[in-house]
Amino acid sequence: MKNGVGVHQNIVLFGGTSDIGVAILREILQPGVARVVLVSRDVDRAQSATEEMSESYPEVDFFHIRWDASDASSMQHVVSEVVQAVSDIDVAIIAQGLLNEGRDYFADPSGLVEMANVNFTGTMSLMYALGGHMRTQGYGKMVLLSSVAGERVRRANPAYGATKAGIDGFALALDHELAETGVSVLIVRPGFVDTKMTAGMKKAPLSTDAESVARATVRAISGKTKVIWVPGALRWLFLVLKNLPLPIWRRLPL
Amino acid sequence: MPHKRLSGWGRTAWTVADVVSAREPDAIAHALTEVGPRGAIARGLGRSYGAAAQNAGGTVIEIASETDYEGADITFSPETGIIDVASSVSLDAILRFSVPRGWFVPVTPGTRFVTVGGAIASDVHGKNHHVDGSFGQHVRSMTVLLSNGEVVELSPHQNPEWFWATVGGMGLTGIVLRAQVALLPIETSQVLVETERLGNFDAVCAAMSADGDDDRYRYSVCWVDLLATGASMGRGVLTRGNHAQLSEVSSDEPLKYDPRLRVSAPGWVPNGLLNKLSIRAFNEVWYRKAPSQRHVGCESIPAFFHPLDGVTNWNRLYGNQGFIQYQFIVPLDRTDVLRRVIETFSEAGVGSFLAVLKRMGPQNLAPMSFPTEGWTLTLDMAAGLKGLPELLARVDAMVLDAGGRHYLAKDSHVAPSAVRRGYPRLDEWLSVREAMDPAGMWRSDLSRRLGLVQGA
């Protein structure tokens, strides 16, 4: 159960090895948190990511559940496993994602389906499964790690951008569908985040780090905000970029 | 059943439940037949500050409304001074009925907008606890609807175990349908009040201590300025009084009772209107307004007992972030902890404009009743204050280490371990609760957070 000062007892992280996801956990842990579940493909790695946290918060119970984020048909089952561990889910952080930077899909399209499954189809199924459970709880918050990449899809990575555009639009409307049920979605749209996912890539302007994303996210979790941008200035930059006429947009070095 | 978003009086931690309005015992019993796996809880006038009367994803049975006082279900026997009322009847309705007849409620909290059912479930206390104890001690008997549909009569003599588990049981043993409550005879509707300004914390404690003259007053409470520091740290305004006798007032209508015209708080208030600066200014005025020398005067019942009821929806003054009430008690000899708690809040810049200190009398027989012999401090604060969870966790530890506890009717944050440590008879109560409700039907968001009932 959540309490009156914005502390959530039961927190679940999907994508348990995500740098941003783990940073959010670190930020959200405070007195009153009782149970944390990490859902990941690589449970050993997720376990080592939480060692330090469980030392600082010995009263918190940590659980680990294995999943395949690309298997959309398993999401209902994954959520019921989480429910078995902690009963009510106060906050679900949805952080799984594939970037597949620099792949030549013309030469080898095999990675496309997996990415679409992880970033879009699987996430969508997960959010319906979570939303359904949270609706019966009468409360709950889903936090979706989206990206500015979905705001206007760039030629640099059209497939990734398209999955993010899709899931972002889906999540916004799902929140609307869940209005009056006590359940809501917070969409987090970071810009370029310096993490292992983007290691080796050239930093974009207004880049940020996982800790900044985590701080902004946790600040917004208990409120009514639907969408946050990190850093905040990206909101205005993308308002412009999104509305640029196509001929101008195509000339930008993005 | 309509879905509705509910919170406590502090307007935090909103959740959605199926809300059923039911006044009559038959309607309430019928509502129970449709309860789903997330259980049910009764809700009166929603004055508990936290999540005691809400039930996320389950059923909430609303048994009362503020406008119900006309034609309230009250039977009174002047010979015994005992009223027989439906649990949905508010203290407001009782006072409108009883004061003109020369009777007062045995215990009233700071608001008269609580139902008799809620007063029993929270075992509320008032300014007279050091003399009269809490509400449950004045309940002669009650009729309780159990989760299996059975209706039982409970009293201190008839099934006392179940009776005392229901007193202070936060609605988790059954729904109180009716109660017989002993009233207090009064000669006038005035209270003879002594007001005294006390310059620091030591003076406050000394004035209210048991070996002083506190017991000569039926009502005694001290407002404390939490933001005062240095030599005036913990300064306060002590008000103590007794019901005025006929000879002490000059009035043609000594029992006239007129709950004042109420003004309303604005519908929307920005977060942070009540901040450290505005509260500091308020506290200064409030302190200076009190006479520097001991002063005696007459006050009406609403002015003395229920000043905040004069402002409807005053809980909106903290804006949409809501606020929390923090009320704890520590043993009489632990004024050192009180002082440390006040210092901790003051250093953290937590402003509180309703900080109140009171010395409580002995504890009653109810295992989950909050009051024990000791000092209780109550304060309110904005729920959105930065770092509040850590600050409260620190203060919780000070309170629990000193053998103290928290008041569940006000609580909106403590951990399950705080109840375990603060209420040594918890296990005893849990097993009686289980016997009264084997199906585990009674649930609230409070019980969920504290793990008081098995299941989701």
From TrEMBL, chain A:
<keyword id="KW-0560">Oxidoreductase</keyword>
<dbReference type="GO" id="GO:0050664">
    <property type="term" value="F:oxidoreductase activity, acting on NAD(P)H, oxygen as acceptor"/>
</dbReference>
<dbReference type="InterPro" id="IPR002347">
    <property type="entry name" value="SDR_fam"/>
</dbReference>
<comment type="similarity">
    <text>Belongs to the short-chain dehydrogenases/reductases (SDR) family.</text>
</comment>
<dbReference type="Pfam" id="PF00106">
    <property type="entry name" value="adh_short"/>
</dbReference>
<protein>
    <submittedName>
        <fullName>Unannotated protein</fullName>
    </submittedName>
</protein>
<dbReference type="InterPro" id="IPR036291">
    <property type="entry name" value="NAD(P)-bd_dom_sf"/>
</dbReference>
UniProtKB/TrEMBL annotation, chain B:
<dbReference type="GO" id="GO:0003885">
    <property type="term" value="F:D-arabinono-1,4-lactone oxidase activity"/>
</dbReference>
<dbReference type="InterPro" id="IPR016171">
    <property type="entry name" value="Vanillyl_alc_oxidase_C-sub2"/>
</dbReference>
<dbReference type="InterPro" id="IPR016166">
    <property type="entry name" value="FAD-bd_PCMH"/>
</dbReference>
<protein>
    <submittedName>
        <fullName>Unannotated protein</fullName>
    </submittedName>
</protein>
<dbReference type="Pfam" id="PF04030">
    <property type="entry name" value="ALO"/>
</dbReference>
<dbReference type="InterPro" id="IPR007173">
    <property type="entry name" value="ALO_C"/>
</dbReference>
<feature type="domain" description="FAD-binding PCMH-type">
    <location>
        <begin position="12"/>
        <end position="186"/>
    </location>
</feature>
<dbReference type="GO" id="GO:0071949">
    <property type="term" value="F:FAD binding"/>
</dbReference>
<keyword id="KW-0560">Oxidoreductase</keyword>
<dbReference type="GO" id="GO:0016020">
    <property type="term" value="C:membrane"/>
</dbReference>
<dbReference type="InterPro" id="IPR016169">
    <property type="entry name" value="FAD-bd_PCMH_sub2"/>
</dbReference>
<dbReference type="InterPro" id="IPR010031">
    <property type="entry name" value="FAD_lactone_oxidase-like"/>
</dbReference>
<dbReference type="InterPro" id="IPR006094">
    <property type="entry name" value="Oxid_FAD_bind_N"/>
</dbReference>
<dbReference type="Pfam" id="PF01565">
    <property type="entry name" value="FAD_binding_4"/>
</dbReference>
<dbReference type="InterPro" id="IPR036318">
    <property type="entry name" value="FAD-bd_PCMH-like_sf"/>
</dbReference>
